[in-house]
């Protein structure tokens, strides 16, 4: 069945780089787009970016200068890297499959990221 | 970027009550609109897509509608398992979400 699972360090120091991995199963990254969405505790959802089936990417304009999304199709993994982390980046980070064009039909469980020294 | 203005931000309702949540798009997005439910401590789940289509496994008491650039999610008879937060999302361009509605039991 379709599954997505985020992994990565739960704690990042201020000004450092966040690196997260989304490992998927039950579908191919060459057939479905994968998005990253984040949610500060107690607040709403913010779309971060997407890697399309062909490997190209699009990013939220507010994060574009700090954000990079890539993938390894042989390992069924999507990677998120965001630099210059600050306290405003404290959030739960989700990866999600774009199963119905434009709509997120499967989500990972999320990974909580804290920014602190 | 397309802005999605969702209301109300919070809502208290009784069991079996009809609940309506709305989202206003800042420009024409056609039917490119989804609704998600998020229960406390869980990931969001797709409820409705293309403004009115029910996602697989979603109870029929949920429905979506559109009037111009205003979209609505209706729960016809509120159940205890419907408690949580709800978000709209436009899919006309790179996704943007509404601010969310926290639904509580009265």
Describe the protein's architecture and organization.
The complex is a heterodimer of chains A (117) and B (106). Chain A has 117 residues and is mainly β. Helix content of chain A is 0%, strand content 54%. Chain A has no helices and 11 strands. Chain A has strands spanning 3-7, 11-12, 18-25, 33-39, 46-51, 57-59, 67-72, 77-82, 91-100, 103-107, 111-115. In chain A, strands 2, 4, 5, 6, 9, 10 and 11 form a 7-stranded mixed sheet that branches. In chain A, strands 1-3-8-7 form a 4-stranded antiparallel sheet, with no helix packed on it. In chain A, β9 and β10 form a beta hairpin. The model of chain A has no long low-confidence stretch (mean pLDDT 97). With 106 residues, chain B is mainly beta. Chain B has strands spanning 4-7, 10-13, 19-25, 33-38, 45-49, 53-54, 62-67, 70-75, 84-90, 96-97, 101-105. In chain B, strands 2, 4, 5, 6, 9, 10 and 11 form a 7-stranded mixed sheet that branches. Chain B is globular, with a radius of gyration of 13 Å. The model of chain B has no long low-confidence stretch (mean pLDDT 97). Chain A binds chain B through residues 35, 37, 43-47, 50, 58, 60-61, 94, 96, 100-105, 107-110, and chain B through 1, 32, 34, 36, 43-46, 49-50, 55, 87, 89, 91-92, 94-100.
